[in-house]
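We examine the record.
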Amino acid sequence: MTNPARPAAELRAEVRGRRRAHFTAAAFLLSIALFALSGCNRTHSADVVATVNGHAIMRADMDRAFAEKLGEAQGQQPSPEESDALRLSIVKELIDEEIVAQRAAKMNLTATTEDVDAKVNEMKAQYTEEQFAQQLKANHTTLDELKRDIRRSLTRTKLLNKEIESKITVSDADVANFYNQHKSDFNLIETRYRLAEIVVTGIPLPAPNNLQGSKATTDAEANKKIQALKNRLNAGDDFGALAMNYSEDPETTQNGGDMGYLFESQLRTDAAVYAAVSKLNAGQTTEILPVMDGQKKQVGYAIYKLISKEQPGLRDLNDPRVQQGIRQQLHNARAELLKAAYLEMLQDQAKIENFLADEILKKDAK
């Protein structure tokens, strides 16, 4: 049922979520094509890798993000070409961030110190001071760097909410048209279950990603931990809060253990889980169940909660859940398109100089 190795609590998401790049030669060639300006003789400080409307993007910021990416790669060393591709990708992200920051500042939408501090305090509320410091160290960042990343993220959100999100409307007619055009998608051919989980394994790795940094490293520790969590559930503790703080499944932990919807045929692939879940009413939890790997070897323990159960049949358009789901899907699709167009427009209006791209071209030309 459960893959015991899946990522990320909110602190990691804030620090790393915006810095994604791939170590591929294809990315290298694409980045060169997009951002290199050949044939230009531009002078600049060695500390600067690019400028946006005259504002410098510093090499130190690129190097910091590059080091973090290497840390995430867990020891995999890129080739020189892959390193150049990664640096180009990072500089592109920094350029995009600077474009957004400048537009937000022009519109008085830059996140305030109060906004940033409130977000930091929200994160710290789940930790002791020592644990929070350990999380910063584990993510190779400082509090000031975290605050800078948060400011950028909040600023971007404020700008896009103002320029895009607030202007999107989805009418009742839009919802009805979508439903009629995709009616077969709303016809459940079998029962489906919405589940949440708390998972504990005795596998030492991966590193803990829950809010408490809690990780069992042996089967005995895992057994003891899951028993303690079951006792807390029986005493009335909230399932989602326990999952966020102690569950070791990185794909579901940050969502309070929510696994989404599973069809009955999927549940039946694990006879023990199906037998336990099929007896539950919404809101109830199973006893402690074994977690098996692909070789049917037990690697941990889990507790499942049944959030809801839907019987087969056509779901009606008048069902509030159907309407809400369609409305959100249409909103998200429009928002994604409009945000991409908006950011492209901002890039077209900005004066960008990518000195790193020039460096790479000159190096390869030698």
Observations:
- The domain at 190-311 is CATH 3.10.50.40 (Chitinase A; domain 3).
- Strands lie at 48-52, 55-58, 187-188, 192-201, 258-263, 289-292, 298-310, 313-314, 352-354.
- The radius of gyration is 24 Å.
